[in-house]
Write a structure and sequence with these properties.
This protein is of the alpha/beta class and 314 residues long. It has eleven helices and 14 strands. The longest helix has 20 residues, at 101-120. The relative contact order is 0.16.
């Protein structure tokens, strides 16, 4: 059985190939049972989350990701996410690979956002604002740079030193990045705004979004969390990774739906509609687009298959 650690997983999941693999999986589809989502009490700290995400392509591959999210791990200088992906044969059930789940999750999440941006962001988008300084921030910037001609990156975080550190790390990767203190000014200037936080209160105000902006909401994966306000969801054309996930778990969609701010029909399409051509995506340079993702098991399966096949094809 193949076992891939964090660095091996990273090398096996290069951005163009990973984005293509996820696009192919969304276009072809796979079986995705409802994922198990459990709140785990941590005495004296924020609740953690245990996720179990199975998926399979009949007769081909099947897999399950076991993932934990501990929001207060930053106090221990540890990643918030730990996990493992178990990939098996869809013909025999034989266990094929154990893949480091945190790296797989971070890279497939960023690649999915980049895939959405390929259909929803302006083709000439050059400036990206990264809201959040966690593990996903560098991945999101790199992934979006693979699909759009980005030349500048601004990074905002509640913790200014963390934003400075993220900017230094981004520069080391060849990205023209700077930490930014004024969130409003950075939002008003950006062509693409990526949010990857665990915020329970809106960070991005819709009035700040310029014509043609694309808002990518990756964090706030529970109904009680939120990264954008009501003005943002009413000004923007709304898209989601999957209807099943975003309508139940994404606070940026769930909360305004429950409040009657938006209606179900206001959500124009899910990612499968975009990649299959059932929906054209962005139709003008002036429209504001919003993509909300909460994660789908097929993204993990696509990444796991790519990692396994790229390592065993040699």
């Amino acid at each position: 059985m193949l076992v891939l650690n964090q660095e091996e997983t990273r090398r096996a999941l290069q951005w163009p190939a990973l984005i293509d693999a996820i696009e192919t999986m969304f276009r072809g589809g796979c079986v995705m049972p409802v994922r198990h989502h459990h709140a785990i009490e941590v005495p004296g700290e924020s609740d953690a989350t245990l996720l179990l995400m199975p998926a399979w392509v009949p007769g081909s591959y099947m897999g399950v990701k076991i993932l934990s999210v501990f929001p207060d791990n930053s106090q221990r200088s540890l990643p918030a996410i730990f996990g493992t992906y178990l990939l098996s044969s869809g013909k025999t059930g034989e266990m094929l690979a154990a893949i480091e789940g945190g790296e797989l999750t971070a890279r497939r999440t960023a690649a999915t956002s980049a895939l959405a941006a390929k259909y929803l962001a302006r083709e000439d988008a050059s400036e990206l604002l990264m809201v959040g300084t966690g593990r996903l921030s560098l991945n999101l910037m790199q992934a979006h740079a693979a699909v759009r001609p980005l030349t500048s990156f601004h990074i905002w975080g509640r913790n200014a030193p963390a934003a400075e550190k993220a900017a230094e790390e981004a520069c080391a990767l060849g990205l023209n990045a700077k930490a930014w203190i004024d969130l409003e000014a950075a939002t008003r200037s950006a062509d693409i705004i990526c949010c990857a936080t665990l915020s329970h209160e809106p960070l991005i105000k819709g009035e700040w979004l310029k014509a043609g902006a694309h808002l990518d909401l990756v964090g706030a994966f529970k109904p009680t969390m939120r990264e954008s306000d009501d003005v943002a969801v009413t000004r923007a054309h709304l898209y989601v990774d999957t209807f099943d996930g975003a309508l139940k778990e994404g606070g940026d969609i769930v909360q305004p739906l429950e409040a009657g701010i938006i209606q179900r029909d206001d959500i124009r399409a899910e990612l499968a509609d975009l990649v299959s051509g059932r929906h054209p995506g962005r139709s003008s340079d002036q429209e504001i687009t919003l993509f909300k993702s909460v994660g789908a098991a097929l993204e993990d399966l696509a990444g796991a298959i790519l990692a396994y096949e790229s390592r065993t094809a040699k």
